[in-house]
Amino acid sequence: MRLTPRGQRVLGCLIEKAMATPDQYPLSLNALRTACNQTTGRDPVVEYEERDVQAGLTDLRQHELVKTEYGRSSRVPKQAHRLGDHLDLDPAQQAVLGLLLLRGPQTPGELRSRAGRLHSFESVEAVEAVLSSLAGHKFGAMVRLLPKKPGRREARWAHDLGEVPAPEPAAATATAPSATGRHRAFHDAVLAGDWDTAVAQLADDVVFRSPAVHKPYEGKDATAMILRTVATVFEDFRYVDVLDADDRVGLVFEARVGDRQLQGWDYLRFDTDGRIREFTVMVRPLSGLQALVQAMEAALAR
């Protein structure tokens, strides 16, 4: 089964919305177009017209992967995928396949971090088991493991439902990154648990402002220590939104500390070389912040 890029994007959106916002599913043509053109959780970002979405739906119908439904109170036709009944995929398999269709090649750790709104995976090993089941599916391989890139700690998985994914950008050179997208190396490294790469994005004189203390931490070593410690405290961490503007970026995250759910904001400012020179964190609600402070104090005392 080989889907066109438009078919891949439409199918990924149907999977995502069915699991993340079931009350708004199935999707009208206009809602599906909006989902395809989202700027968060999409790689690449596209600007589809209605005809592009229709082309994607036509592609999916040829493979019996989509059906049209009509609600009792509306004559507007709505679209739903058929992965469950046509390909016999369970929710965990659908979540992983949807993420690969929408965001390109990813590590098992990245998939687990990004799957929060779709399906809860207890461990990276659970994601790896799902990937193996998709690679050896009875109807043919739906995912495949890509060769590990130089400088990468882990290999990435890609869907196998269409064109080969475009090669990843080459490693950073002496040329400064563009004004927008500077956060991607840090963002992706954090989700992958690759803290060496994440710390490498910090400027030597970075200033880190914590929501728990008045005095900022100064320097790369101090900030790296805080970030690595936070990684041992947070559970189910995931970035859920990105606000990118010139030399500053806001990364909105959700996480859990013990039985406390919290939301937060990583505010990053970059220098002319594309390194993070200011790193400010805010956390809510107060109960979540208190749980984080207590857990951090315990971790730092060990």
List the helices and strands and how they pair.
Layout: H1 5-20, E1 27-28, H2 29-36, H3 50-62, E2 66-69, E3 78-81, H4 83-86, H5 91-103, H6 108-114, H7 124-135, E4 143-145, E5 157-159, H8 184-192, H9 195-200, E6 202-209, E7 217-218, H10 220-233, E8 235-245, E9 248-257, E10 260-270, E11 276-284, H11 286-301
Parallel strand pairs: 6-11
Antiparallel strand pairs: 1-3, 2-3, 4-5, 6-7, 8-9, 9-10, 10-11
Helix pairs in contact: 1-2, 1-3, 1-5, 5-7, 6-7, 10-11
Description:
The chain has 302 residues and is an alpha+beta fold. The chain folds into two domains: 5-135, Arc Repressor Mutant, subunit A, CATH 1.10.10.10; 184-301, Nuclear Transport Factor 2, Chain: A (Roll). The protein is built from eleven helices and eleven strands. Strands 7-6-11-10-9-8 form a six-stranded mixed sheet. Residues 167-179 have low confidence and may be disordered.
